[in-house]
Amino acid sequence: MKLIISILAILVLISATAAASMIIPANENAKEHSKAPEKSPVIGDNWDLERVDFIHYAKQPSGGSKPGADTCYKLMGVKWSTLPVSYVINPANPDGLAEDFVSSIISTGAEAWDSATSKELLNNAVGIDYNAVYGVRDYKNAVVFGDYPDSNAIAVTSIWYTKVGKQIVEFDMIFNTRFDWGDASANPAIMDLQNIATHEFGHSVGLNDIYTSTCSAVIMYGYSSNGDIAKRTLEQADVKGLQAMYGP
Ligand SMILES: [Ca+2]
Ligand SMILES: [Ca+2]
Ligand SMILES: [Zn+2]
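^ thats the input. predicted complex w/ calcium ion below
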């Protein structure tokens, strides 16, 4: 009996070690960006879950504004199986943006994706939760403003998914308060909340960043900048990527 228990204990130890050392290069293109921190792709959590952080970096677009080919999308290889996905917003922010403005703009970003599939992906009802925090696996999909310790990171979306079955089980999103947020159509010197939220919600449903410069007009292009409002609406490639996961 003792021997069996020992063997079991060793087996558990081996699988736990394997899980801890597992690195998923889900955001392999991030390597192209020299400022991407080494630790950004994956932080281990529970032994059966993986976490990946998508960091949206600031960079002035170099290409034109062509819509990009249909191939301008990349899947993470994970998706939600239980729909719709509910999320909560913590509207607290240092830019003086009102709760109504924040929740309606963020919801608009989420629903941009919903409108491209017959599935109800993200819940129409938006929860407000002033206690919601970013980056914690707490069974709460939280959308917050906060200080992210990288002044080149506009926003980050973290995804937790099961290693087996590749199902997304949680996401958290943070808008970095090192930038000024609001409606950039009124003030091009600030970061457009709707523009960035729409990009981040693409991650929340399973889309990866794309860094090819000829794809710079699609929502899932990996860089953005102050005043960018071009990524409020989906391009053909964004729709194609979404529908590859959730159907038309
Ligand atoms: Ca919806
Ligand atoms: Ca959470
Ligand atoms: Zn991104």
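The first helix runs from residue 2 to 21.
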